[in-house]
Amino acid sequence: MAASERGFVVIGAQFVFFSITDLRTLKEVERGAYPVSTGEDIFATHEIEPETVDQLAVALRTIDRLMKDYGVAQVKVVGSHSFFEAENAQFVRDQLLSRTGLTVAMLTLSEESFYRTQAVLGKFPDFDKVTNSGTVLIDISSGSVELTAFADGDFGFSRNLSLGPLRVFEVMSDLQRTVPNPVEVMRDYIDSRLADFMRLLPKNQHYPHVILMGSALSVFGALIPTGQGTVEIDREGFKLLYRELTRASDQYLSEHYELTASETSQVLPTVLLVYRLIKSLNSEEIWISDLKLLDGLEVSAASAFGSKAVAIDPDHEILISARNLADRYMVDPKHRDFTVKYALQLFDRLKKLHGLGKRERLLLEIAATVTDIGAYVDTHKHYEHSDYIIQASELIGLTAPEQRMVATIARYHSSDTPQTDLSDLTEFNTARRLVIAKLAALLRVADALDASRQQKIEKIRVSLQDERVLLTATANDDVELERWSLNTKGEFFAAVYGLPIELKGKTRL
């Protein structure tokens, strides 16, 4: 086994996908899937049945033996968001650990969105060219639909809808047996769920291109030529396909497209969903891709490994997601950019003091970007509003604990201050409490440097001395308000780092 080979496993709603990948080259050594339909249990009864747990355990043990046969030492196993929707998901997770020795990590919706974006950025052919015009990536899993928009070649926004075809089928199954026109009823149901999404789309932005991907695209996957990862069709071609599939019998679908009974039952909701999205977006070209969440895990791991086969910045989409959230809540862009700039300067120049790494720097940049969004609700105690808005929003690429950390850092950037013993941060472990305190202290200083909201300071010099941290600012106006604000907010900095922080300013003539 090469030292760069890793194993990846995704427990989805209908399959357990796995791969063995050489991170150095991003080439797959082995790839496969075991059919285990957790989704049918979850969407029907909200729990994973014991028989399904048995099937999961068998699949995971088989995959684990294969990994060991290849000599793969590091295996990442994740459960999709739909898996953890089950009310007994934590019990099932513990049972799988005891029976297989494998720990199933939970993915948030924002993490899934991040990995899917990484998949297309790293593996979709001519992605930059396709996304020069407005493009929507539509990832369809059995339980949900993730819509990620790109404009001018760059990430725009992401939305998740609980509208996967298996979920729609389970919700509509009783109704389908009692109405004369189930296609029309299902179409109306899907349209009602899409209404809010369409309303929130950016104005005056056209999306002529659509990329379809995901684990629930079995019927479309049959259209991809052998040996190719994508196929392109135009809108008229898709209309013809839509008419064929919505009128076809289950027997025809099963035989012609080689679908299982479960996959056949999802054809109608899948085709209707895609057709209504394409019609609503007025898209002209459609790419059908066999990329899945599994591919995003591979690309992300290869990027972290330093592979030359992946030429993407994994933090780029995360930061754009944060800026989009700030824009949505009308944060003052000049103060935001000022705060981000000086928060990062303080972080970089005080590394010996805080001892934190690259990931913590990213969390600080995100917190500095979104810290004032609560003012959209009310400027009074806006930091409290920032806290719950951040926790309720989709910031792609962050784990659930990281998103809560960002929200807490934002809460304490202003006049609200955590207790010196950090006893009010009980939901975090000791290590995370310290990170929150250190980053919040830096953010408070950066925010104080623009207390007047006039961006008076043009540059600062940071000097770490034995008895203090000295900031020497060059400004275009008097900085007495900033100095006064720092004296107040700097008290928490001194408590965290054990050194007072002071500001000296000179006005540029």
TrEMBL record:
Domain Ppx/GppA phosphatase C-terminal: 321-487
Coiled-coil annotated residue ranges, if any: none
Domain Ppx/GppA phosphatase N-terminal: 37-300
Name of the protein this chain belongs to: Exopolyphosphatase
SUPFAM superfamilies xrefs: Actin-like ATPase domain, HD-domain/PDEase-like
InterPro entries for this protein: ATPase_NBD, GppA/Ppx_hydrolase, Ppx_GppA_C, Ppx_GppA_N
Pfam family, one: Ppx-GppA
Sequence similarity: Belongs to the GppA/Ppx family.
Signal peptide location: none
